[in-house]
Amino acid sequence: FTGEFDDSFGIGIYVPDQTRFLAGVFNREQTTNEDPSRDGCTSYIAVIKEMNFKSYEPFEYDFYLATGNTEEIRGI
Predict the structure, then answer these.
(1) Collapsing DSSP states into helix, strand and coil, what is residue 75?
(2) What is the per-residue pLDDT for 67?
(3) Separation between Cα atoms, residue 64 and residue 15, nearest integer Å
(4) In the Cβ-directed half-sphere of 27, how many Cα atoms lie within 13 Å?
(5) pLDDT tens per residue across span 58-73
(6) Distances in whole angstroms, Cα of residue 6 to Cα of each of 10, 18, 21, 66, 71
(7) pLDDT tens by residue, 22-58
(8) Is the Cα torsion angle 60, 22, 43, 5 positive or negative in sign?
(9) Are the CB atoms for 6 and 71 separated by under 8 Å?
(10) What's the chain's Rg over C-alpha atoms?
(11) What is the pLDDT of residue 37?
């Protein structure tokens, strides 16, 4: 998630062995406050993978987050 310019600040996510994600932004165009931290906009991302879960067995996975501009995030 970065802005439209290469030097825009953003967040990147990496999940080993996964290439399919669902992502989006809710309420992006409804920003009305001068202080954006008080608006209801939110971004979401989810890995898309079919799997079977067994009842009451733990499920674990790794993911990595990076912040910076597009070049910095991709360079990590």
Answers:
(1) coil
(2) 93
(3) 6
(4) 10
(5) 988 899 999 999 889 8
(6) 10, 24, 22, 15, 7
(7) 988 777 666 666 776 666 677 888 889 888 888 899 9
(8) positive
(9) yes
(10) 16
(11) 66
